[in-house]
Amino acid sequence: MQSRRKSIDYGSLRHSSIASNIASKKGKIDIADLTLDIHRVVKELKRRPTADDYIKHGKYPINTVFRVFGKEWEQILATLGYKTTKNTYSYQEIVEELERVAKHLAKLPTLHQYNQIAKIDADIVKRVIKTNDWLEVLATVFNIPIELVEQVLNPNHVYYQEQLTKLKTIADKVRRVPTIAESTKYGVSVDLVMKRLNKKWVELLALAEINLAPRLAPEVAPSLSCLTHRCISKEQMLEDLNLIAHQLGYYPSELKYDLLGSYWANNLKYGLDKTWLGIIDLAKSHSLNILAERSMLRQKSCLNKTILEFFDIPNNKNKGIDLDKYRF
Fold it and tell me: From residue 75, how far is each of 40, 44, 173 by CA, in Å?
């Protein structure tokens, strides 16, 4: 702290000290006042200010800033969310910073979003990760396939266009606005698309170019207005978690599920009344049960086919053999 202050103009600092005494007589200055003023200086200069900058442009004495925060200037800026000037970071520090930003945004950050709130410069991140491609940075740090990262970050990705086209097709077939349940039943990943695109159901319908006014059925209205109260089944939650695990090749952490899943980790923990590890165990069991059921159906189908081929008279009851009693 002492070495940092040596670089500050002492004439300004003495003037600041006198101003500090005058200001203290006028009223107490708290962290909130100083924070607002530092943000103002940043906005005014359009860059990260030095302590000298604040002495010239700030409203309050620099001595007061140091005393109230109890920190050096660089630490004060870091506390307020501005990137530090440190040039050397470990890989783990980069991971922790990206996770902090992702958690704050509740999604994978674009480069622009990262630059807005990160404490470590994006160029330093790229240097440590050894790539200039931001998608590769995220894919490496979060251990997510780059194709999935691109899908999450790009609202114009072909995946979302396919989902909207499918939604429009459903509306044309039923000749009205489909409900969320109907759309999900016929293959639209409604919850995922709404979460990724940050859209409500009505907004999603508009994106799919579905005209609400002439098509809106009376029974559809509640699903539009009460979307947040819609009940998501336990099976849907577990299936979604298993889908993400399949895409990643492993079961995700809570943060990673929040970034990629159709729902939120807290939704699953509350709905299933289990810890995250307990939910993963439940999802694994659910997956095994589904595989067992499918295997059994395949075995039954093969046996039915064998019986039909053996008699070589499918659905022919004229010869006295009712094949239905041989079916499972």
Answer: 18, 21, 61
Produce one character per residue of 140-161: b if its CB has 16 or more CB atoms within 10 Å, e if not: bbbebeeebbebbbeeebebbe
- Asked whether residue 85 is domain-assigned, the answer is no
One digit per residue, the tens of pLDDT, for the chain of length 328 reads 444 444 444 444 444 444 444 444 456 888 999 999 999 999 888 888 888 889 999 999 999 999 999 988 888 988 888 866 666 889 999 999 999 999 999 999 999 899 888 888 888 899 999 999 999 999 999 999 999 999 999 999 999 999 999 999 999 998 888 888 889 989 999 999 999 999 999 999 999 999 876 555 555 444 445 433 467 889 999 999 999 999 999 999 999 999 999 999 999 999 999 999 999 999 999 877 766 666 666 665 665 655 555 555 455 555 555 555 545 4
Tell me: do 75 and 122 sit in the same domain.
Answer: no
Q: pTM of the predicted model, to two decimals?
A: 0.64
Q: Are residues 104 and 143 in the same domain?
A: yes
Which among 212, 227, 242 is the end of a domain? 227
Q: How many CB atoms lie within 10 A of CB 13?
A: 16
Q: Can you give the residue range of the structural domain that contains 125?
A: 91-153
Considering 29, 56, 79, which residue would you say is the last residue of a domain? 79
- Domain total of the chain: 4
